[in-house]
Fold these 2 entries.
Entry 1:
Amino acid sequence: MIQNFSELQISPYVKERLAASRFTTPTPVQAAAIPQAMEGKDVLATAQTGTGKTLAFLIPIIEQQLQHNVPGITALVLVPTRELAMQVLEQYNALRGKKLPAPALVVGGLSEGQQLSAIRNGARLVVATPGRLEDYIGRKLINLRSLRVLVLDEADRMLDMGFLPSIRRIASILPRERQTMCFSATLEASVAHLVNDYMKNPVRLAFGSILKPSENVRFQAFEVATDRKQEMLQRLLAKETGRCLIFARTKRGTERLARNLSREGFTAAMIHGDRSQAQRIAALSGVQQGRYRVLVATDLASRGIHVQDIAHVINYDLPEVAENFIHRVGRTGRAGKRGIASTLFARDQRSEVMVLERTLGILMERMKPDLEPAEQWEQKRLAEVARIDALPQPAARMRRLPGEFLQAHFEN
C-alpha cells in the first residue's frame, strides 16, 4: 500500500501542490485509482463519500492537462448537486496553482454570466450538473469536442435523481476516444448498464464493507415521547462542545428546529431544498468558520456536502430509507477522529429502528433519556432486548446499500 503521495508517479509540481494543501497520505481509493487512471485506463470504483475519491480523479486530470497543453475543454466532471460541484471546483483550484486556467462551473442557481465567462476564458475543466449542462449544450454555449476525460461522480445518486436521460444525451455528443471514470456508492443494474454503454474494459475497484460500521462512530438511540424530543435534543446539544449536524425529515421541520434552537441560545443554521444557493453557502461557511455550532438539515445535506470536524450527528427524525441513515452518520467520524451518531425515536417507532439495525447490520446502544424514572426506562430496555431475536426482516425498499459503509477517511 502506498503510504505517501511522494511515492506516486506524478509530477513534482502536483506533489508540491498536494503538500501545500496538506495532503500527505493517500486514502485506499486514491492509492488504487490514481495509478490506473494515470495510465489512461477507464476506472469503475464503488466508494462512499469520505474516501477521498475527489482527488482520485482530479490528480490524473491535472497531470493529463499539464502534459498535454491543448486548448479547449479537456475534462468534464458530472455530479448530482450544486454543492458537490462547488466542492470539486474548490479542490481543483487548490491544486492547479498558476499553471492551469480557472475551471468552469455549470450549475443552476448561480450566475450564468460568470459560468459562461469562465468557459470563454479558456477553462479546461468543467464541473457540471447534467440538467444545466444539457441546457448549455442545447443553446450551443459550450463546446466539448476536445474532451479527453469524463468523470461520473456519485453516478447512482445522479440516476436516483432522474438524470439518466440527460447523461445519455450528453455522452452521445462526446468524443468516443476518451477516458471515462465512474464513482458510485452502489453498483445497481442502472449503473451497470451505464458502465457497459460508456466504459471500455474498466478497472474495477471496490472499497469497504457494506455491513461493517465505522469503528470511529458510536451509535446510540434514545426512546423519547414526541412532545419531549425538543427537550432531549437540547440536552444532547448542551453536553456537546463540538459541531453538530441535526437531520429532520421535512423542510418545515428543519425551519422549526432551527428557529427553536436559536431562541434557546444555540447558534444554529439550516439548509434544505427551498433555500437559495446564497443561503446554503452562507450556512455551510458559517458552520465551517465557527459562526454556527449547529446545522439543521434535510437529507439534502447527507450526501455530497462536507463540513469538517462534525463531532455529533443527531437524527431528530428517522430517515425514510436505510441509505439515508448511512449518508447522514457518514458526516462524522472522519480522518481518524471519533464521532457520535444519536437517533431519537418514539415508542411506536421501535420496529422501524429494529428494521434499520437489521438492514445495516448494526446495533445502536439504547441510552437512558434522563426524562423518565430509571425503573420505567429499565423495563423498556429489558422488553426490547427480549424482542431482538424476533426482529422483522427489512422491507424491500430498505435493501439498497452503498458499496462502502462509513469509511473513516477524509473526503476532499
Note: The chain has two domains: 5-206, 217-398.
Entry 2:
Amino acid sequence: MTTFFHFSDFHILPKKGMTREEGDPCQKIEKLIETAEETGISPSFSIITGDISQNGSQEGYDIAKDYIKKIEQLGGPVLPVIGNVDKRETFRKNLLKESHNEKLTPCYYTKTVEDIQVIVLDSQNLKKVTGQLQEPQIHWLEEQLLNKEPTIIALHHPPFTLQLPDGLSYPLFKVKDELRFYKTIKESNTVAILCGHLHQSLITQRNKVSIIVGPAALSESLINSKVSKTYNASGFTIHTLKENALTSRPVIYSEERKLIKTTPITQ
C-alpha cells in the first residue's frame, strides 16, 4: 500500500507577502503544508500538478524550492509538473535541476517509487489555456508504458471536455491530442491520471481510468456555462494505492469560504 500527496496551483508571486485578489499565495501554501503535517501521514512521494510560479519568475521558483523542501520533510520526493503559467526554461533549471535551457522543449520525465511508475507530462500550450500533447512527447509516453508497471500519469491540464450541469461543455484540451492520449494509454496499466488547472476537486473517468483533478492551493473555482465563481478556499488530496485500487481523499481548508469574484465565461 502506498500513500502520496497531491498539491496543485500554487501561483507563487515574486515576493513573499505579495497578494492578489485571491489573497496571499504563500500564506495559503504554508497553511496547506501545516495541514498535511497534521495528518500524521508520511507520504511515499508528493506531486504538484503545475502553475507553481506565476509567470514563471525566478523569484517565484526560489520560494517554491523552499516549500518543496518542507514537503519533502513530510516524506518522499516531490515531483513537480509544469503548468500554463510556468516557464519551461526557469522551471527546468530550478525544479528539474537540468542544465540545458531550451525555452520551448517540453518538460516531461518519469520516476518509479515503491514499484509505481509516475509519468509527468508537459501539457503546456503556449499562450492558450487549453492543454496539448505533441510529438515526440506522446511517442516517449508510449515507450514508458511498455513495462506494465502500475502507473500514475500527472499533467496540469485535465485531458477532457468539462461537462457542465446545464448540458453545455467547456473544452480543456486539444481534441485530437486528447484522443491520441487515450489511445496511447488504452492497453497500459494506468491506474489514474492526476491534474490541476481547474482549481476544484473533480473526479471523472475515461476508458475505466480515473481522472482526478486536485484542488488548488490558491483558490476554489465553481464553473457554469455563464460565470466562474472564485472562492477563498485551499486544498490538497491524499491518495492511497493498494493493488491497483486508488482511494482519493480531498482535504479542503478555509477560514471563511467567501466569494472573491465572478468572471463571465466567453467561448
Note: The chain has a mean pLDDT of 93.
